[in-house]
Amino acid sequence: MNIKHYIGIDIGGTSTTVGLVSKAGKIVDRSIILIQDYASGPIEPFLDAMADAITELSEKHQVEISGIGIGAPNGNFYRGTIEYAPNMPWKDVHEVAPYLENKLGIRSVLTNDANAAAIGEKQFGVAKDFDDFILITLGTGLGSGIVAGGNVIYGHDGFAGELGHAIVVPDGRNCTCGRKGCLEAYVSIRGLLETYHELADDKVNTPQDIAAKAQAGDPNAIETFRKTGEWLGLKLADAATYTSPEAIIFFGGIAQSSDLFFPALKETLETNVHNLYRNKIKILKSGLPLNDAAVLGSTALVM
């Protein structure tokens, strides 16, 4: 077992993917762990299941694991912990990377899932030639990873870059973080569905339903995506003024409908950004496969 590979772990709200990845960035195999199977108890059995999956993948393919990278909601890079993640069943602060490292004897590194996606985009995606960019993940929540000078910005406590919790509508919708009016409450799966319901007084189940209606000419669905792009463009104008990115890159399920909200996003961004940065920022979709990006990002973290 002397062929070195890496483990990339994507911890999500409903499932966790443990991927075996080659040095070339190819996902060789993966194992899926359902969160619901462990949600009623302490976090340790869930961590043990991840450790078992890593061992099984290593033995199955007869490879040595050089390192373990983990992307997780509310992940703290400095401490290797998940801290007060609102969409996870285990609250408070939990050591994840130290637990796996102690159990398996393999170097383990953890960061916020959006930061991991940004690192993956830099290593394997459209950001290969960029040292200054913002990666936005659009899914259950709104995550962001900010890269400056080729390095992810973590801040003094490991949590820098939470653009999803910048206030876009003062005293607006309730957010899962406990505050009101956060960007995530408007630009996320939940936010998109709520906006459509407010406009059409009609409930739909998925963003794809709204996208299909918009493509068919439904004015409420079209307006839902326009408003989504407008809210996003407004806060990204602020973020661009702070960080001067060369590009803003979008990843996630909602980003697959970028043609429906990119026009409003670009117009709002260019209208509101400082004139020093106007018409300089590239707006791009991720270059990573939707089902592989989180695992590859976590792998790039430990690489």
Helix content: 25-40%
CATH architecture of the largest domain: 2-Layer Sandwich
CATH class of the largest domain: Alpha Beta
Shape: globular
Strand order of the largest sheet: 3-2-1-4-8
- The CATH homologous superfamily of the largest domain is termed ATPase, nucleotide binding domain
Element order, helices and strands? EEEHEEEEHEHEEEHHHEHEH
Number of strands: 13
Gyration radius from CA atoms, angstroms: 19 Å
Low-confidence stretches: none
Number of helices: 8
N→C terminal distance: 19 Å
**What kind of sheet is the major sheet?**
5 strands, mixed
Write structural notes for this entry.
The chain is α/β, with parallel strands linked by helices and 303 residues long. It has 2 domains: 4-112, ATPase, nucleotide binding domain (Nucleotidyltransferase, domain 5), CATH 3.30.420.40; 126-285, Nucleotidyltransferase, domain 5. It has helices at 44-61, 97-104, 113-124, 189-200, 207-215, 219-243, 258-272, 293-302, and strands at 4-11, 15-21, 27-34, 64-72, 75-76, 81-83, 93-95, 108-112, 133-138, 142-148, 151-152, 247-251, 282-285. It is globular. The model has no long low-confidence stretch (mean pLDDT 94).
Short structural description:
By secondary structure, this protein is an alpha/beta fold. Helix content is 36%, strand content 23%. The protein is globular.
Give the topology, please.
Layout: E1 4-11, E2 15-21, E3 27-34, H1 44-61, E4 64-72, E5 75-76, E6 81-83, E7 93-95, H2 97-104, E8 108-112, H3 113-124, E9 133-138, E10 142-148, E11 151-152, H4 189-200, H5 207-215, H6 219-243, E12 247-251, H7 258-272, E13 282-285, H8 293-302
Parallel strand pairs: 1-4, 4-8, 9-12, 12-13
Antiparallel strand pairs: 1-2, 2-3, 5-6, 6-7, 9-10, 10-11
Helix pairs in contact: 1-2, 3-8, 4-6, 5-6, 6-7
